């Protein structure tokens, strides 16, 4: 029996899906964040954990892994040395491939055909495939990049809330909520910042969307700035010559109503998710 495993390792969660050769789902699992930022020593055990959980659900043990063809899409895989380090790890699988989470998302969205995606999750990145060649836009990592992502929304929330605390801009219900989250302890907020990850910042993203819908002026301004980044991404993507582009990630649906009509009408629905893309990369024929 031949099995196919797809894994999507991102900034907020790591998911796996195991199928048979007919594409029938046998097992799946989800754990917390597992991306390049945490380093190979921490990443590898998490990849194996999410694999084992999906296999256990399917009734497979580790002796069966030699019949599994696997593909892992990992956020931040372009970090120097990471792919080589992964490829040097002893593989328990029949075959294994590593790529970025953006590539598996693109492959899944277009069922392996040419197209583009803009991922809006904990981070953000655009991935373009034309004639089998790939190109990315953005995605250089938080905080220097990842505009309009969950982490970016959280960072903007903190920045605006501190300005409001200082009296440099008008306080709002939203900025007060952010400051109250830290018990009105600004030094405590600064201490939190020293250790905060992109995932920590992204926890504030739903607050921004919620407050923006309610008309909070600060949250609304952050959303409008994010929309400008998103629309610029999409315009540049189509200038590259792609025929289809999908908006993907946890913030795709929340942002769709905010986009202008001339941008939203250019977007196509996704034909599959990132795990579908990983499974296609592993060799599964849909």
Automatic annotation (TrEMBL):
CDD domains, per database record: ASKHA_NBD_GspK-like
InterPro entries: ATPase_BadF, ATPase_NBD, Euk-type_GlcNAc_Kinase
Pfam families: BcrAD_BadFG (PF01869)
Domain ATPase BadF/BadG/BcrA/BcrD type: 5-253
Coiled-coil portions: none
Gene3D superfamilies, alphabetized: 3.30.420.40
Protein name: ATPase BadF/BadG/BcrA/BcrD type
Organism: Zymomonas mobilis subsp. mobilis (strain ATCC 10988 / DSM 424 / LMG 404 / NCIMB 8938 / NRRL B-806 / ZM1)
């Amino acid at each position: 029996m031949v099995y196919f495993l797809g894994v999507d390792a991102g900034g907020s969660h790591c998911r796996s899906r195991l199928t048979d050769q007919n594409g029938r789902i046998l097992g799946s699992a989800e754990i917390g964040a597992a991306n390049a930022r945490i380093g190979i020593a921490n990443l590898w055990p998490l990849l194996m954990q999410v694999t084992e959980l999906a296999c256990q659900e399917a009734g497979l043990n580790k002796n069966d892994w030699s019949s599994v063809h696997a593909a892992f899409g990992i956020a931040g895989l372009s970090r120097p040395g990471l792919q080589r380090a992964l490829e040097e790890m002893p593989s328990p699988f029949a075959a294994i491939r590593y790529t970025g989470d953006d590539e598996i998302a693109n492959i899944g969205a277009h069922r392996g055909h040419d197209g583009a995606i803009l991922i809006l999750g904990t981070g953000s990145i655009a991935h373009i495939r034309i004639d089998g060649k790939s190109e990315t836009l953005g995605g250089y990592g938080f905080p220097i990049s990842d505009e309009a992502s969950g982490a970016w929304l959280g960072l903007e929330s903190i920045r605006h809330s501190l300005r409001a605390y200082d009296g440099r801009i008008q306080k709002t219900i939203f900025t007060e909520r952010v400051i109250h989250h830290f018990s009105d302890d600004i030094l405590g907020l600064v201490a939190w910042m020293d250790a905060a990850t992109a995932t920590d910042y992204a926890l504030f993203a739903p607050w921004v969307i919620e407050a923006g819908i309610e008309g909070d002026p600060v949250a609304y301004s952050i959303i409008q700035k994010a929309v400008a980044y998103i629309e610029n991404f999409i315009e540049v993507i189509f200038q590259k010559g792609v025929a289809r582009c999908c908006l993907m990630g946890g913030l795709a649906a929340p942002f769709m109503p905010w986009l202008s009509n001339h941008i939203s009408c250019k977007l196509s629905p996704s034909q599959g998710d990132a795990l579908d893309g990983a499974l296609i990369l592993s060799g599964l024929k849909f």
